[in-house]
Amino acid sequence: MSSQLLSANHAAALATTLAARANRKGKGFVSGVYPITPSTECMEYLCNQKIEKGRVVRVESEHSAMGVCIGGAAAGARSFTATSSNGLAYMVENCIAAANLRLPVVMVVANRTLGPPWNIWADQGDALLLRDAGLIQFYCASNQEVFDTVLSAFRLAEDGRVMMPVMVNMEGFILSHNVAPVEIPQQGLVDDFLPLTDIPHRLETVPHTLGQVELPHQNECHRFQHHTAMLAAAAIYDDIRAQFEPIFGRALQGALVPYRCDDAETLIVSMGTMGITAERVVDDMRAAGARVGSLRLRLFRPLPVDAIRAVFAGKKRIAILDRNIGLGLGGVLWSDTRALADPGAVVQNYLTGLGGGDVRPEHIAKIVADIAAREISGAPMLMEAV
């Protein structure tokens, strides 16, 4: 095990390189790539790596990048791509195809605001376009978490009980370009952790179809099978976590990251790097005698409903922070989780960091002060960040 100073972009690419080499005795590795800020450095780093049995294909668009991954996975290879923002939007059709075909493609998304008007800074709205499209979604808060999650994403995606794409999200520039120490395992440990890719429905010499026309009842059955597999993925991920630590000597973060939640009366709920800032605020407020806790969601699809409800239980006030907006309703995290609170709890949505504004401790402290003064929930509230 060695420690390297890496950006999250480079950490994702290095994790992918190790995963690609781990499949050298199997069907190899295929990646389709097309650059877009702020994920370009991930692809550039990957293009410069030596992979004994595999190929990184430079294509003319994001749509084609996922097309290459679909072809590679359909042939039985381990597959990967990376993108961001409007690149992901252009890729949506093929992302849905990969999901519906149950192909275990791993994709890293450097979350960036959708345009026009053009903005290159962080906003989770790009990934949340695909909330209900059948891709597993993780949201990371550190460079080490990006590296570990990418490695585990290949294991999860390729599990025979799952077989679907996994999206690993990191906020653009906040993580993608910031450099931090990352613990990197030796290739042999990655080989031990990742079995050879085995895609049961891969295309081989025995003729069969993949992506054929379906009658309504066939499509209904396949969609429900996909839904059932998605629900099962959370427990399978817990099994993967149990195998991760003995091999790599560190814990793999779970679906939820609760922080000082047990006796909290007020809870701050978030995804991504805002959760790390919220933990600092919690410590400051605890020192002042306030019973505040933080809950960071890493796994958004499948949504860990029972686990969230258990943390929400007994909480009088829940502030849900969204670096995104579902226009006409409110934050996406809020809209999916507000019903899991106890009856009578004040559950307030705060839209903050939209378009990439910094969310600092003083902003979250202001949010906690606002919800402390509330007796009932109100409409989603815009909290400007700078």
Please, could you describe this protein's structure?
Strand 2 (29-33), helix 2 and strand 3 (54-58) form a beta-alpha-beta unit. The chain is globular. It has helices at residues 8-21, 40-47, 62-74, 85-100, 125-128, 143-157, 187-193, 216-248, 274-287, 305-312, 332-337, 361-372; strands at 2-7, 29-33, 54-58, 78-83, 105-111, 136-139, 166-171, 179-184, 256-259, 266-271, 292-297, 299-301, 317-322, 346-352, 381-383. The strands form three sheets. A seven-stranded mixed beta sheet has the order 3-2-4-5-7-6-12, sandwiched between helices. The longest helix has 33 residues, at 216-248. The protein is built from twelve helices and 15 strands. The mean pLDDT is 97.
- Tell me the number of structural domains: 2
Low-confidence stretches: none
| Percent range for β-strand residues | 15-25%
The count of β-strands is: 15
The 3D shape can be described as globular
Largest sheet: 7 strands, mixed
The CATH superfamily of the largest domain turns out to be Thiamin diphosphate (ThDP)-binding fold, Pyr/PP domains
CATH architecture of the largest domain: 3-Layer(aba) Sandwich
